[in-house]
Amino acid sequence: MEEKFVKILIDLPDAEFGVSGESIWSVQVGDDLYEIRNTPWYSQDINFHDVVRAMAPTEDKKPVVTEVVHRRGHRTIQVIFHDEGSPEKDAVLVALKTLGARYEGANEMLYSLDLKPEVDFDAVADYLEECEKSGWLSYSHAPQPQPKGTGDRIN
């Protein structure tokens, strides 16, 4: 069966960077259940391959994420390069790739990193911390470890 990609919306109540919501690609895997298929640019609590519950407020609106149901172990880190880091950006991205991070750039400054479950999160974060101390970039991520999804809890 061919997968059908659909956009769903993540509300961002803190409106960091002036962004109050983010539309991301997903595949519907059940009633109101969607598997995330791209790394979010702004949301830190939802990761690639997580399964979320999302419901459309009306038929003509995108489904809006209400909860993470299953975590699949990926983690997301947002990176913003500063002007001072521009000459170092390519080398930093190569180093991140060597550490196992996959990345995509929204523009020349904002990058979103996806770390598969087998990637050493601490090694990537430690490297980014050194780059931040050098003034090349800023980075952020959700507190680790992330909470389990609501469907992953033992009741």
Report on this structure.
The structure is a single chain. With 155 residues, this protein is of the alpha+beta class. The chain folds into two domains: 5-70, no CATH class; 75-141, Ribosomal protein S10 (Alpha-Beta Plaits, 2-Layer Sandwich). Helices cover 15% and strands 35% of the residues. It contains two helices and nine strands. The chain has helices at residues 89-98, 121-133, and strands at 5-11, 21-30, 33-36, 51-55, 64-70, 75-81, 102-105, 110-115, 137-141. It has a five-stranded antiparallel sheet with strand order 1-2-3-4-5, with no helix packed on it. A four-stranded antiparallel sheet has the order 7-8-6-9, with helices on one face. Strand 7 and strand 8 form a beta hairpin. The longest helix has 13 residues, at 121-133. It is globular. The termini are far apart. The mean pLDDT is 92.
Short overview:
The protein has 155 residues and is α+β, with helices and mostly antiparallel strands. The protein has two helices and nine strands. The chain folds into two domains: 5-70, no CATH class; 75-141, Alpha-Beta Plaits.
